[in-house]
Amino acid sequence: SELELVEPEDDAALPAAGTAAAAGSSGAAAAAASGIKRTRTYDLYITYDQYYQVPRFWLVGFDEAKQPLRPDQVLEDVSEEHARKTITLDPHPHLAVSAASIHPCKHAEVMKKLADTVSSGGQEFQLEQYLVLFLKFIASVVPTIQYDYTMSVGGQ
DSSP string spanning 102-137? Predict the structure, then answer.
């Protein structure tokens, strides 16, 4: 039709979803054939832990087919140093799902050390920098997740 945006002979265009299904191929097979790399995705949640009085970071993972990951699969994406020590599987406080969480028992101590490091570098640590610094701390625990930082803390 006139309104079709993709030319049928365009080699770079992906086949329409109905075309792959009609041909009897699965989404994973179609992705492999097209050269598209499918990856796991995570929904990231930050809540406030009343007991420890710090932010708590939650990971809910999904595979390439958007199905929830098993706990052992989530641990594959966490640094080995932290996988069995600080990652716990707990019910999320606001969702009806069990989620991997970086246990908050040491957050206050670690965040204090990081803030002191920023301050010792000659910069004053601003309260509004806390969340960015917290995400940098989390990135050391979950190195496979890439964050888009729009501000730096302590010249890091």
Answer: E-GGGHHHHHHHHHHHHHHTTPPPPGGGHHHHHHHH
DSSP letters of 19-44?
HHHHTT--HHHHHHHHTPPP--EEEE
Query: How far is it, in rounded angstroms, from Cα 40 to Cα 17?
Result: 20
Tell me which residue of 108, 113, 107 sits closest to 138, measured CA to CA: 107
Above pLDDT 70, what percent of the chain?
A: 70
- CA geometry: angle 90, 96, 98, nearest 5 deg: 25
C-alpha 81, offset from chain centre: 18
The tokens for 20 are 């792959």
Q: Under DSSP, is residue 51 helix (H, G, I), strand (E, B) or coil?
A: coil
This prediction's pTM: 0.64
pLDDT in tens, 67-117: 999 877 888 888 887 777 788 888 999 998 889 888 888 888 888 888 888
Q: Which two tokens stand for residue 43?
A: 């929904």
Active site residues: 105
From residue 58, how far is each of 31, 94, 138 by CA, in Å?
29, 11, 10
